[in-house]
Amino acid sequence: MKETITLQEVMKIVRKQVLFIMSFTLFVALVTAFISYFILQPIYEAETQLLVNQKNIDQPYIGVQQVETDLRLINTYNIIIKSPAILSKVINQLDLNVSPEILMEQITVTSANNSQVVNINVEDKQADLAVDIANTVAEVFQEEIQVLMTVDNVNILSVAKLDEEPEPVAPNKTLYIVAASLIGFILSAGFAIVVASLDTTIKTEQDIEEIIGLPIIGLISHISDGNNRRTRRE
């Protein structure tokens, strides 16, 4: 095996094995496409938003300290939204056959910096169920926060809605197929290069020229056994 291999040699190997490389790449892409379209279940997402603000919205002026207090409370609210105290009630209302821990993994709670808006995103294999969970979480939290923290500064800003033709957020079929094709190409090309590098047998006169570094000035033709027998009989 050669200790080093030049770029020209790599390209030469790839050209020789282009049929194998392209066939393997196509095979991997087709398998990935089949899995993405027929095996993996689509995941849908629904979003609802909460607004953390003053209880009395008729006040002409909202103090800066109150707004800062609301912003600090948002981090606490984000934790409470995904707590068993909230999710257990959501499970009971929707009659879900999951535990609060599993439901927690489906929910993402975020809020922009210095924003009083809290986003609740829910992912599920059923689009309508994702919408129901998102809206129920918001409603239950709005009710329970008044009991848990004795505050009434949470309002539902927007509710999740079910589209007529919901689009799944996962799996990203195009990305999976492109990534699988790239990986298949790299693996097949790498395999071809390794096999060619390990093969030290001489197959053609060009291989001899490359080894000895001298041009070939003559060839000995192959003489079959049949010709030899005829020669002896003559």
From TrEMBL:
Record localization: Cell membrane
Pfam families from the UniProt entry: GNVR (PF13807), Wzz (PF02706)
Location (main, coarse): membrane
Keywords annotated in UniProt: Cell membrane, Membrane, Transmembrane, Transmembrane helix
Keyword flag Ligase: no
Recorded superkingdom: Bacteria
Residues of the Polysaccharide chain length determinant N-terminal domain: 3-94
Membrane-topology descriptor: Multi-pass membrane protein
Residue stretches spanning the membrane: 18-40, 175-198
Tyrosine-protein kinase G-rich domain residues: 142-194
Sequence similarity: Belongs to the CpsC/CapA family.
The protein, known as: Capsular polysaccharide biosynthesis protein
Organism: Lysinibacillus parviboronicapiens
Classification lineage: Bacteria, Bacillati, Bacillota, Bacilli, Bacillales
